Amino acid sequence: QIRDVQGRMEKPVLTVDDEILTRTGKLSGTEDVKPPSADKSFHVETEEKVRDTTSREESHMENLEECVVEHLDEDQILQDDNEKEQIKISQSKIREWSKGKEGNIRSLLSTLQYVLWPESGWKPVPLVNIIEGAAVKKAYQKALLCLHPDKLQQRGAAMHQKYIAEKVFEILQEAWKEFNSVTFG
């Protein structure tokens, strides 16, 4: 029945099997039907799109060549050197703080005030207050809130303070994983 309809129509009615034959040009009576990729207008359209894209990229490149280079003044250089020095100091401070406490979440939390800056918002937690697992979890969550990058951004923390927060955050997370695997695992 499909073949009868196909014979009477200008454009063939294709089934899934016929579509494959049409693309290869073997369907009886439809040799003039060509796949879309053989259509010249398709190729011309594609070539135009490629040319448009290429010319846009080239014009983008031309625009980049006209950019103004910003010159750094001495104050910026001094500030960058100061930041680098502060980060080096922070690295040694973090190493000193975490030394011997790796994986010990209670010790890390109870001494966190020694590595953080006064405006960090951290309130010291005595070791005796974090004996129970629930108390450890609560102190850990408070520490994460205090060290979270979004909170630091809101408070306008300096680069070295963000660095301290990031490294301390990582150390606490590792200790928390260990604590969780032993306590709740």
Automatic annotation (TrEMBL):
Superkingdom of the organism of origin: Eukaryota
Residues covered by region (Disordered): 1-62
InterPro entries documented for this protein: DnaJ_domain, J_dom_sf
Annotated GO MF terms: clathrin binding
Compositional bias of kind Basic and acidic residues: 1-11, 40-62
Gene Ontology cellular component annotations, sorted alphabetically: endoplasmic reticulum; vesicle
CDD domains: DnaJ
One biological process term in Gene Ontology: clathrin coat disassembly
Name of this chain's protein: J domain-containing protein
Organism per entry: Aegilops tauschii subsp. strangulata
